[in-house]
Design a protein that fits this description.
This is Farnesyl diphosphate synthase. The protein contains ten helices and two strands. The protein has 208 residues and is mainly α. Helix 3 runs antiparallel to helix 4, helix 3 packs across helix 9 and helix 4 packs antiparallel against helix 6.
């Protein structure tokens, strides 16, 4: 099977599973859930969840165990895109060929939808870790994702990107932005998947 076709099939699988994890649009919080699902269902390559599942499988694990983590990573990625599109940051009107979240639901709801996706991602991961034989393994996987998304990863890169806007910056700082704003979550999701799959220390080191 050609690589592009393989990637397309794996993305379709992620799309199918993602729908199962989307919160129901009901209750007083219905609007923010609609906003969450609007951006979650906007498509994309779904590379991060695919990498999570493949990393789990390649070290000999059961990729089904990594599904909640793969879905959570896509939720975290989506929250970052919603916030990135806001007027305070990139001020984008379109994302993946349709109006950005804040253009549809307003800035306040866009902020809340991003916040909600980040929190819901951890709900999904924790729910997928309860009553497991080796809970420490799942906690380590959650930690890998949290680090990749946090101040020593994606957020850290975003901060330097914001502070460097319209400035001439040195290559070292530019490398830091790329390694953290984008690559940190890629590494984090693979390390999380490999951890769930039971990777040994040498295999984990290879991911770095």
């Amino acid at each position: 099977m050609e690589f592009k076709q393989c990637l397309k099939e794996k993305a379709s699988f992620v799309e199918k599973v993602l729908k199962e994890y989307m919160p129901k649009e009901e209750g007083y919080q219905k609007t923010v859930i609609e906003a969450m699902n609007y951006s979650l269902s906007a498509g994309g390559k779904r590379l991060r969840p695919i990498l999570t599942l493949e990393a789990c499988k390649i070290v000999g694990g059961n990729e089904d165990e990594a599904i909640p983590f793969a879905i959570a990573i896509e939720m975290i990625h989506t929250y970052s895109l919603i916030h990135d599109d806001l007027p305070a940051l990139d001020n984008d009107d379109l994302r993946r060929g349709r109006p950005t979240n804040h253009k549809v639901y307003g800035e306040a709801m866009g902020i809340l939808a991003g916040d909600a996706l980040l929190n819901y991602a951890f709900e999904v991961m924790l729910a997928g870790s309860i009553n497991k034989e080796n809970p420490e393994k799942y906690l380590k996987a959650i930690n890998e994702i949290a680090k990749g998304a946090g101040i020593y990863g994606m957020i850290g890169g975003q901060v330097v990107d914001v502070e460097s806007e319209n400035k001439q910056i040195e290559k070292e700082k530019l490398d830091y932005i790329h390694m953290n704003k984008t690559a940190a979550m890629m590494v984090g999701c693979m390390r999380a998947g490999a951890t769930i799959g039971g990777a040994n220390s040498e295999q984990m080191e290879e991911i770095n």
